[in-house]
Amino acid sequence: MSLLQQTTPARLTEPATRKLPRVALLIVGALYIFAGLFFRDPWKTDDLTGLATMLDAYRESAWLLPQIGNFAFAQEGPLTTWIGAISIAILSPLFGLFTDPLSAQIAAARMPNILYFFLLLWGVWHGTYLLARRPECQPLPLPFGGEPHPRDYGRMLADVAFLFIIATIGIIIPIHETSSFPLLLALFSLAFYGLARMLDHPVQGSIILGLALGGSLLTHGFIGATPIFFMIACSLVSTVLTTRDKMAFLITFLLGAGCFLAWFIPAQASSPYWTSSWLYWNYSSFGFSSPRFFFKSLRDLLWFTWPTWPFALIALWNWRKWLRAPHIFIPGTMALGSFLTIALVENAFEPEYAMLTVPFAVLAAMAIPTLRRDIINTQDWFSIMILSLSMIAVWLGWIALHFGWPQQINHNITRLLTGYDPQISPLAVIAAITVCILWYSMVSWRLRVNPQALWRGLILSAAGLTCTWLLLALLWLPAINYNRSYKQVSQELSQALDTHAKPGTCIREQGLGMGQRAALRVFDNITFTYDTTCKLVLLQTSRKHQEDQTLPYTDNARILWQGSRKSERDEIFLLLQLGK
Q1: Whole-model pTM above 0.90?
Q2: Are the CB atoms for 221 and 76 separated by under 8 Å?
Q3: Strand order in the sheet with 508-510
Q4: Distance CA 503, CA 475 (A)
C-alpha cells in the first residue's frame, strides 16, 4: 500500500488553520533574543571563551587559528570566532560613540546572535512549511468538505514549529552567549531546510545542505557534522528522494568538504601543533560514556528539550505508519542522528543537546493536528499554570532580596550573593509590571475568545516563556551578573600586577580554568607564559586547600595578592612570587 492510500492521523477543519499574525511572531522573537543579550558582563565558561577568541582575532590578528592569549584554543572550530571578530571590526567603532571601547567590542560580538536566532527560526519555519504542504502530510478529507487548504495547513504547522523553538526551555540562556551554540543551532536549521528543499529543488537544496555541513564542521568539528552525515546517509538508502535527486548529494559533499579544507589546509601549514590538537580533541570527544553519565544526560535532555520531546514522541507514534514520508523521515532521522551523537560523545552537554532542538520542534509540530481537542486544552491550561507560577516565583525572589521577606528565601538568595548591594531601578520595575500586564492580557484573551486555531496553546507557551525571561532580565540581571562575572577579580589582579611586577615581567599560571583564563584576557588583556623559570605564578585553588596548607610552592613563595568573586565560597586566586 502506498503512503497516499493510508489513513492519515491528522484531522482538523479549516478554522483550525487560522493565520497567526506575522507581527506577533516577530515581536515574540525580537523580545526573546534582545532580552538578556546586552548590558551585562560575559559569563563563564563558553560565553567568555568564545568572546576571548573573537577579541584575540580582532586585536592580535589571530584569524586562522583561535587563540586565547598564548593558549591555542584547539576546540570546536573557527567559524564562530571569524563572524564575531568581523562584527567587532565593523560595529565596535559605532558602539564606541556611546560607551567605552571594551563594552563596545562586547556588544558588537553579540550582534551575530540576533542573526543566528532568526536564521534558526527561518530554517525551521520554511522547512516545516515545505514538508507540511506535501500530500503525505495532509489531514483526512472530511465527508462534506471543510478541510484546510494545503498552503494554510503548511503555514499553520510552520507557525507551530516556530513557537515550539521559542518555547524550548534549554536553549534560552546559551542562545544569548558568544559561543558556538547559537551558530550550531542555526546551521542545523539550515541543514533541515536544505534537505526539505531537495524534494522539489535538488540542486538548490543540496547547496544549502552543503553550506550547513561545511559550517557545522567549522563550528563544532566532527561532532557537529555527525547528525547531518547520518541524515544524508539515511536519505541515500531511502525512497524519500529519487535516484536522480540523490545525485545532488555530490554537490553537498563537495561543497561541505571544500569549505572545511579551505580552512584546514592553511591551518595545517600555519601550525601543525594546533591542527593536531584540534584533531585530537575531535577524536577524543567520541567514546561511550559510563552508564551513570549516560542516564544523567537523558535526565538533562528531558528538561532541556521541554516541551517538545513529549510531542515529538507522540508524533512518531501517531504517524508510525508514515515513517517513510518526508515530513516524518527527515526530522526523524535528524533526531535519531543527534541522539546517537549524544550517546557517542563523552561528557555531552549543551552544544550536543542543541542538536535535538530543531528535529524535536518539527516533529512536535507534526503531532499537533493528530491530538484530540481535550489534550490541546490541557496543554493550554498547563502553560498558563506553570508559566504564571514561574513569574510569581521571579517576583517573590526579587521581593525577598530587596525587602527581606520571606526570610528563608532571603537567606537562601543572600548566601549566593554575598556582598551584593541590591538597588531598585524604578524603570526596570515599571517595565516588569508591564510584562506581567501583557501576560495577563494574553491569558484573558485566550480564556475569553477561546480561538480554534491549533497554535493557541503554543503561543501561550512561547509568549509565557519569553515574558518569564524578560522578567529575569529586568529584575535579576544585576544580581546574576554580580554572581557570575569575573570582571572585579580581573581588575584587582591587574592592579596587583601593576604594583608588584615591572613592565614586561612574565606571569605563568597553575590550575587556571578555561573560563577564568578567558575572563582575564577579555577584561584586562592578561596573558600567561609557558616559561617555567617565570617567578610570578597565578594559582587557582580552593579555600579548603589553603586552610589545609596543601598548596604548591608553599616553601619558597610569597603571596602578593589573593582574591575571588565575592559571591564565591570556594574558589580563590593567589598571585605568588617564587624565590627570595
Answers
A1: yes
A2: yes
A3: 508-510, 536-542, 571-578, 557-563
A4: 43
- Tens of pLDDT along the chain (580 residues) come to 455 556 788 877 777 777 788 888 889 999 999 999 998 999 888 999 999 999 999 998 889 999 999 899 998 999 999 999 999 999 999 999 999 999 999 999 999 999 999 999 999 999 999 999 999 998 887 765 667 888 989 999 999 999 999 999 999 999 999 999 999 999 999 999 999 999 999 999 999 999 999 999 999 999 999 999 999 999 999 999 999 999 999 999 999 999 999 999 999 999 999 999 999 999 999 887 777 788 888 889 999 999 899 999 999 999 999 999 999 999 999 999 999 999 898 888 888 999 999 999 999 999 998 887 777 777 778 888 999 999 999 999 999 999 988 889 989 898 888 888 888 999 999 999 999 999 999 888 888 877 777 777 788 889 899 999 999 999 999 999 998 899 999 999 999 998 888 887 889 998 898 999 999 999 999 999 988 888 899 999 888 877 777 777 767 788 889 988 887 878 899 999 887 5
Nearest CA to 416 out of 388, 397, 396 is that of: 397
Counting DSSP H helices and E strands in the chain, the numbers are 23, 6
* Alpha helix stretches (DSSP H) within 247-371: 249-270, 272-285, 291-304, 308-318, 326-344, 350-353, 357-367
Cell of 283: 577524536
Tell me the C-alpha distance between 49 and 36, whole Å: 18
How far are the Cα atoms of 74, 203, 345, 374 from residue 282, in angstroms, in the given order?
Answer: 10, 31, 10, 47
C-alpha to C-alpha distance for 545 and 543, rounded to whole angstroms: 5
Cell of 165: 523553538
Rg, the chain, Cα only: 26
The SS3 assignment for 571 reads strand
